[in-house]
Design goal:
Blueprint lengths: L1 E2 L5 E4 L2 E4 H23 L5 H27 L1 H6 L13 H18 L4 H26 L3 E4 L6 E3 L2 E5 H22 L5 H17 L20 H20 L19
Helix pairs in contact: 1-2, 1-5, 2-4, 5-6, 5-7, 6-7, 7-8
């Protein structure tokens, strides 16, 4: 069994730092870095345009992540207090964040008349790098308890040994990083990176959600038709990914960026 080592906060010189928030912030910074790096490798856009794109995607993801979490995971709380929808520090939904980021990003792309396939791939390429730190945060605060188990992969929660869904997904996220890196290296067709991740991630997440706890009362995730909200989102994402992989085959590969001229030797 894995001991439940919780580190929700730590102090440096008497200043308290919330571990989850710090790790999410690191994930955002790494995601921004990887987006800029990928854009440069493709010879795309100015740094300022990319910076604003990342900011819009993150803001949309953060807002929708909480709002959709309240609507689909805590509807009873929302019925008691509609203002909960705006308590942005009270919880986040992963697929809610993804949905908000996609919508906000597409609005930005439309306003600036950018190629939606290319810029969606930019964000998708960076996504699992940032996601790794987000799921690391889930793992250290143990906010996704699963079903009771006697598996060696179980974590000793108060009240019994359970699967820790945040820890499991954190351990599997390097596979998603490898996926986007390999696809990005093998093809420059816009849409392929997003399509590949949209197909593979649901194949990981959908079965994992069957391990979520059902015996924790209000803390258990709600089910709709026997599935969690994330599982329904997985089905839609998987179908979208298949469509994107098919549609992207008709796109011409992006040209290689022009080589920088060699510096002239000093006179």
């Amino acid at each position: 069994m894995i001991p439940a080592i919780e580190m929700s906060e730590f102090k440096i010189f008497g200043v308290a730092f919330h571990t989850f928030g710090l790790l999410v912030a690191l994930g955002v910074l790494l995601g921004h870095h990887m987006t800029v790096r990928r854009a440069r490798s493709l010879g795309l856009a100015s740094a300022g345009l990319i910076d604003r794109f990342v900011l819009v995607v993150f803001t949309g993801g953060f807002l929708a992540g909480h709002m959709l979490d309240s609507i689909f995971y805590h509807p009873e709380v929302l019925r008691r207090d509609p203002w909960e929808l705006f308590m942005l520090h009270h919880g986040l939904s992963s697929f809610g964040g993804i949905t908000g980021g996609v919508v906000a990003g597409l609005v930005y792309i439309r306003i600036h008349k950018l190629d939606p396939w290319v810029f969606t791939d930019l964000a998708t390429y960076a996504f699992p790098f940032g996601w790794l730190f987000g799921r690391m945060g889930c793992a250290v605060v143990h906010d996704h308890p699963g079903r009771l188990t006697d598996s060696p992969l179980g974590v000793r929660f108060p009240g019994g040994t359970r699967f820790d869904l945040g820890l499991i997904e954190f351990a599997l996220t390097p596979l998603l990083i490898a996926l986007v890196v390999i696809v990005a290296r093998r093809t420059r067709r816009p849409g392929m990176v997003t399509g590949a991740l949209a197909v593979v991630y649901p194949m990981i997440r959908f079965p994992l959600d069957f391990l979520r706890a059902t015996d924790l009362g209000p803390e258990s995730d709600p089910r709709y038709g026997g599935l969690t909200p994330a599982q329904w989102a997985c089905i839609a994402t998987f179908a979208l990914g298949l469509w994107m992989l098919s549609a992207s085959r008709s796109h011409a590969p992006l040209p290689e960026p022009a080589a920088q001229p060699a510096a002239s030797p000093p006179p």
